[in-house]
Design goal:
Strand order of the largest sheet: 2-3-1-4
Mean pLDDT: 96
Strand content: 15-25%
Shape: globular
Distance between the termini: 26 Å
Order of helices and strands: EHHEHHEHHEH
Number of domains: 1
CATH superfamily: Nucleoside diphosphate kinase-like domain
CATH topology: Alpha-Beta Plaits
Length: 137
């Protein structure tokens, strides 16, 4: 039996700059996922560090922090049957150059760092990320 789950999705600054927000949201909605909450916002380094807390000591993290704070993004909570895995499959491989056609990154991405979207990778991270981005829920 499948479970209804919630997951956090970030439509990152590169997707916002390129005008892809509507196309990405449409894909999630057409799949049957429900938007529970959504906010267009910018974040600072402290919020980036809190979100990526497990990675802040990695050598590749400072450029990621610079990118994710470079402009507005869209944070949303999606809900649906096994939403965590469904969204990750829809997003595709992290590196858009290697992502399969038909995925968000495969269709729109050409970078490993500027990779359009983030999605929670497990129920525990989804709960932590949702609480961080949408504390009132």
């Amino acid at each position: 039996m499948s479970a209804v789950e919630r997951t956090l999705v970030l439509i990152k600054p590169d997707a916002v700059r390129r005008g892809l927000v509507g196309r990405i949201l449409t894909r999630f909605e057409e799949k049957g996922l429900s938007i529970v909450a959504m906010e267009h916002r910018s974040i600072d380094a402290a919020m980036a560090d809190a979100h990526y807390k497990d990675h802040v000591e990695q050598e590749w993290y400072p450029p990621l922090r610079e990118f994710v704070t470079s402009g507005p993004l869209v944070a949303l909570i999606l809900e649906g049957d096994t939403a965590i895995q469904v969204v990750r499959d829809m997003n595709g491989a992290t590196d858009g150059r290697k992502a399969s056609p038909g995925t968000i990154r495969g269709d729109f991405g050409l970078s490993g760092r500027e990779n359009l979207v983030h999605a929670s990778d497990a129920p525990e991270s989804a709960a932590r990320e949702i609480a961080l981005w949408f504390p009132a829920l």
